[in-house]
Amino acid sequence: MWRWFVYPGLILAILICAAPMGAVAWSSWFAEAHGCRLDESGYHPCVVNGTDWGGTLGALFISGWLMLVTIPLGGILTVVLIVVFLIDMIRRPKRAAQ
Question: pTM of the full predicted structure?
Answer without folding.
Answer: 0.72
